[in-house]
Design a protein that fits this description.
By secondary structure, this protein is an alpha/beta fold. 25% of the residues lie in helices and 30% in strands. The chain contains seven helices and 14 strands.
Length: 204
């Protein structure tokens, strides 16, 4: 298994590609950069996952889906954001192409697979209404829920600070301390480091 990270968009968003057994899973393609396209060349891409549908995490959906023929999945509560992708971009002065609608929705308890790797889906709203995280064996792809030394912003439409803290406490801090956290922005970290040092979490 390989986990590759690519910085995309002016927001410096982390898109992840998980490769295993000739297959690739694309998570949060903010932009279809040449490096990202090279990383999936020669691999079967069956699924593109949006942890949430802010423009910097799904702006590359259309191009990736067209190139690969993959299905698109996200939580149902993110559909409104996804359909407003170009309008989101206009708020920040960054153009984004519209995204196709999801082929299906995912929810708590679902799984997503690539090769021999299976991720468990956990709902973790607060940064956005239908945010999900992908829990693997020893690591978690957290989108914009948890960062190294920080947490996701909650001042955008549908955000809730109490809900985000609750999501982190019940869906992320329940993971082992050694769990690697691959965040939507910034460097990787671990659950243990964030539990001990993250200023938003030390009292939770």
């Amino acid at each position: 298994m390989e986990i590759l990270s690519f910085e995309t968009t002016p927001f410096i968003e982390n898109c992840y590609v998980v490769r295993d057994s000739g297959e690739a899973l694309v998570i949060d393609p903010g932009e279809a950069t040449p490096e990202l396209l090279d990383a999936i060349e020669g691999y079967t891409v069956k699924t593109v996952v949006n942890t949430h549908c802010h423009c910097d995490h799904c702006g590359g959906n259309a191009e990736i889906l067209l190139k690969t023929g993959a299905e698109l999945i996200c939580h149902e509560n993110e559909l409104g954001l996804l359909r407003a992708l170009p309008q989101q971009g206009m708020m920040f002065g960054v153009p984004f192409d519209p995204s196709p609608d999801p082929n299906r929705f995912i929810k708590e308890g679902d799984t997503v697979s690539v090769g021999a790797i299976t991720f468990a889906i956990r709902e973790a709203p607060g940064h956005s209404p239908g945010h999900v995280i992908l829990v693997g064996d020893g690591f978690v792809i957290s989108g914009d829920v948890l960062f190294a030394g920080s947490i996701g912003r909650t001042d955008l439409p549908g955000g809730s600070y109490p809900q985000l803290i609750q999501s982190i406490r019940t869906k992320m801090l329940t993971l082992p301390d050694v769990t690697i956290v691959y965040s939507g922005h910034g460097p990787e970290t671990t659950i243990g480091v964030e539990r001990r040092t993250n200023p938003f979490l030390v009292d939770t």
